[in-house]
Amino acid sequence: MTYIITMPGYMWSTDGITRLRVAEQLAAGNGWHLEPGSIYEGWTVQGPDGKAYSFYGLGISLVYVPFVVAARTIADGGGLPEAAAIEFVASLVNPLLGALLCAMFFLLLLNLAYTPRIALITTIGLGFGTVLWAHTRDNYDHVMAATCLFASLLLLVRVSTTTFSPYHIAAGACAGLAFLTRIDSAIFILGLLLYIVGTTPPEAYRYRRAVYRIVSFGVGAVPFLILFGAYNYLRFGSVLETGYGIIFDATDRAFFGANSLATGAYRYLYSPGRGMFLYAPIVLLGIVGIVLFWRRERILARIIGVVACGWLLFYFQSNAISPWGWGPRQLIPIIPLLLIPAAEIFARVRTQPRWQVPVYGLLLLSICMQLPVALTSPSKPMLVAITQEQADMTFDWRYTQLLLQVRHVRTAIPATVRGDEYVFDISSAGANPEYLANKITLNIVDVWWILLYFYGFRWALAIGPILIVMSILLWRHLWRMTAPPSTLQEQS
Predict the structure, then answer these.
(1) Which of 46, 145, 312, 367 has the fewest CB atoms within 10 Å, i.e. is most exposed?
(2) Do 262 and 380 reside in the same domain of the chain?
(3) Considering the domain boundaries, does residue 453 fall inside one?
(4) Judgement on whether residues 359 and 432 belong to the same structural domain of the protein
(5) Backbone phi and psi for residue 87, each to the nearest 5 degrees, phi listed first
(6) Three-state secondary structure along the chain?
(7) Are residues 251 and 274 in the same domain?
(8) How many CB atoms lie within 10 A of CB 189?
(9) Conformational region of residue 419, where left means phi above 0, alpha means psi within -120 to 50, and beta covers everything else
(10) Is the distance from CB of 374 to CB of 448 less than 8 angstroms?
(11) Among candidate residues 446, 462, 484, the one where a domain is terminated
């Protein structure tokens, strides 16, 4: 519910809008191509048939389709603007996926025999102490890929000692959907296959049993692999051409090789613009806890290490860095993995009071660091820094988002309280001072119920406080439900 409260209710990234346009075409039965003028040309690739196509994965566009259909039905029945209704309803996808990811993370920790209270605390760290919260507010597809991959892992953990189960097929389907969404999911999927082999019981015919399990996993994944190949072939005439190859050939760029390993590591781990340990310091607890976690779950600990190292090495060497977004969004799929061992730290500090202050202090710090971007759009600080001042937000500490977003909040909250007048639709964009000064989503608290209030729906302002109270009561109930047995006895 917290993610629903803080969602903006509109699409702000061209990446997300492009994926939504594909969904709109599919919902209308018009195929995969994009109509001229429906999206910026820089976000499309021309196919052999002369039509414009998205080069993004198809997965999240398929998820958008029922939301588009529902939005059109609501707009037709309520006399609402169709475009705004579609964006609002589609913007629910990432908050819902993020909430589902957190729920599955909680269930996985319970499956690993952690207490409900420890599982809840660690889940709070994932949901509110990492960049996941910020990216439930945007329209990229990293949250969906992470959710599908983690769903596959959860299903495999639940049947880790079973030779064959429908869970294996379901796990394969989740992994296949993740690959259809983002092809870098293949790194994670290799780790899942290793987990299947590693958890096969050491009995007679072990390898035959492992093959059965892998085949079951593959049965679930194959339909999505077929769709992946068909989607590529129908757009570009090759089952392996996603569109990125055409872009790199046209711009004479390579996906790998422009950065040294050291530069890539600094960019994604410590840099002021993308450093994972700066934007989600709670991940450090997972890194520290991996040794303790090894003693509990050796096979899963190995898989965490293999997948995380493979993922990081892939991006350390890639040119896939973008200044847009909050923190290292490319690492979102492995952040839940890295946080699993943090549960071991939270479990240990319960009996070691001297470590409780630094551990829970790091958790609180991580949550506080996400609050500014959970309330306001990251677009204005980025637009000013990148387009007006030509700043390098990745490496220049003067332009770190961590500070720019705090400054933005200090002006956005007073502007919201004062009820300053801004413009919803404004033709200019980018570095234009008029756009930056007058676009409403760039200048006030950027959540949907406040934006609706400024748009003229005065009743919407009451929705937020009601949802906030409901969310507080729900979290209070969860906290009491997960109390240790001794605490429950004292309360009774």
Answers:
(1) 46
(2) no
(3) no
(4) no
(5) -65, -40
(6) CHHHHHCCCCCCCHHHHHHHHHHHHHHCCCCCCECCCCCCHHHCEECCCCCEECCCCCHHHHHHHHHHHHHHHHHHHHCCCHHHHHHHHHCCHHHHHHHHHHHHHHHHHHHCCCCHHHHHHHHHHHHHHCCHHHHCCCCCCHHHHHHHHHHHHHHHHHCCCCCCCHHHHHHHHHHHHHHHHCCCHHHHHHHHHHHHHHCCCCCCCHHHHHHHHHHHHHHHHHHHHHHHHHHHHHHHCCCCCCCHHHHHHHHCCCCECCCCHHHHHHHHHCCCCCCHHHHCCCHHHHHHHHHHHHHHCHHHHHHHHHHHHHHHHHHHCECCCCCCCCCCHHHHHHHHHHHCCHHHHHHHHCCCHHHHHHHHHHHHHHHHHHHHHHHCCCHHHHHHHHHHCCCCCCCCHHHCHHHHHHHHHHHHHHHHHHCCCCECCCCCCCCCHHHHHHEHHHCCCCCHHHHHHHHCCHHHHHHHHHHHHHHHHHHHHHHHHCCCHHHHHHHC
(7) yes
(8) 20
(9) left
(10) no
(11) 446
234-265 tens-digit pLDDT:
998 899 888 888 877 776 666 666 678 888 88
Q: How far apart are CA 389 and CA 79, in angstroms?
A: 43
What is the domain extent for residue 178? 93-371
Count CB-CB contacts under 10 A for residue 31: 13
CB 266 within 8 A of CB 273: no
Judge whether 194 and 307 are in contact, CB under 8 Å. Answer: no
d(CA 452, CA 195): 47
**End position of a domain, from candidates 371, 401, 428:** 371
Co-location of 331 and 361 in the same domain: yes
Q: 161 pLDDT exceeds 70? A: no
- 268-277 pLDDT tens trace: 999 888 899 9
Which residue type does 154 have? L
Residue 395 pLDDT > 50: yes
Domains identified in the chain, total number: 2
Structure tokens at 449: 């119920």
The reported pTM is 0.91
The answer to whether 437 and 380 have CB atoms below 8 angstroms apart is no
